[in-house]
Design goal:
alpha/beta, Rossmann fold, Immunoglobulin-like, 60s Ribosomal Protein L30, Chain: A, 4 domains, eleven-stranded mixed beta sheet, five-stranded mixed beta sheet, 14 helices
Length: 571
Amino acid sequence: MSRSNGTSASMSCWWWTTPIPWSSARRWSPCWLPWTASSPWSGPLTLSMSSPLSIRGRVSPGSPPEPSRQTNDSIHKGLEIIRQMPADSQKFMLVFSDGEDINSRLKREDVSVAAKGLSNFSAYAVDYMDKSGLDPFLTSFVQGHNGMIRKATSANDFLPILKRFSTTIFHRYMVTYRFLVPPGGTLVSAPSAVNIEEVTVVDSSPMLNHVYFDTGKSRIPERYVALAPAETATFSEEKLKDTMEKHHQVLNVIGKRLQANPEARITLVGCNSNSGVEKGKIGLARNRAEAVFAYFESVWGIDLSRMEIKARNLPAVPSTSRVPEGVVENQRVEILSDHPAILDTIKSTYVQEQADTKELRFAPSLEGETEIKSWQLRLLGADTVLATREGSGAPPAAVAFALETLGLRNLVQLGQVSAEIEVKDQEGNVFSTASAPVAINFIRREERTAQKIGNKVVEKYGLILFDFDRADLKDRNQIIVNRVLARVAELKGAAMDIAGHTDIIGKEKYNVELSGRRAKAVYDSTLQSGIAAEAQITHAGNGPNNPPYDNSLPEGRSLNRTVIINLQYTE
């Protein structure tokens, strides 16, 4: 502890406290805490007070008594500890008291006797008993030991009283004190409501004419749907919905189209990754092609003369072999055809929910005396935790939840959602608060019809897969773009959104730029046609962000190397 004249000295101090009824919504149990500061001391002494009140420092040896309302006993115990401290050290006692003394073994006279003969000792007190006037015993005690007593009638009195004490007790020392404010704040949602409506989707998904295999295996993976011969008659690609489902039915889509186009032929090119256990295994590549060949022949009854098998190591246009994801993508059978109908896009029409926003965002605004140690934010619906985000330190400015991940149909059933955040600060204080409920409004097609409001329609077109790391429009892609332009000419005023996507291989910044180039290629082609006005069209590159398909699967990554065009209009 530093003297104001630059010299140093030692000081020991001891506090005794009792409940402070207005420190918080609950009464605080009494506590007893001695404090010692040994010589030499450098730096300020800090009294840290929170709600409930706590005082922190280096605790002297000895076991404090259990929390009690025994004022005389507690002061006497403190005096015993002070008497054991070095005689030449500066010592003081600060007493917080509500004036009650219940079941003390010792009398006030015993306290006075115990304090006699103490050198370099001062006593101070804060009296906050409910009645007016100062406690006579405390007044006599502190005045007899070079100190002072002050009356506190509310929590607001503490800071000025301690400031007054600090200028008296520590006129030779530097001291700081502060009240620790537990964290508090609010949690605001955006938007305040979500509108979800049924729309008609006309989906033209690209044909991914690959079947991917597990490492070292030639058996068709189970995620590809295998039909029995008797089921082929009722199979219809028009009943399929999303693009990933269509791909896992690719063998059946092609089988049905081969039946409908008996003049068409196909070539099955078996490939391997040409690395690891598959290094140079041409036989493995052939076995993979033969597995696909056998399915078409046995299930769909395709004549052997219409199918040709080839085998090679890497595909003609391979994915990168520098990363595991690229290696797996090369373990495939490519299905080629001389007939355009076999590998054409897969079209289907269905009703789907669509929201007027892509995500829910919750912005915490928090305040506190000490830094936040950890946080957890929970998204709730019908008293069920739908999703959780958590982290160390202060939470971000906003926490977002993608509606697509939550499931629009699930949100409709819930009717409303809310969020709750819980934070813990470095002092161990915990605070939680909730957002206002976010209403989920659902608009059915029947309601729009009854109100004579046109139903929304979204026509979705996916371009044929771009080659790895390429942005140019090949013939098959240009054919699809031309189809889109023909629809735009028919619809007159349909809004056109062009979104480029990539897989997760490579650096994010480069992938965002690559997807932007892919979207721009479609945008430029559209403008050059003169069919659509610039104001009708939006385009953007998303890179690996908000992927439309599952990046954990090789087919998902391949499908993500695409541009998706949405035409939206009201019919």
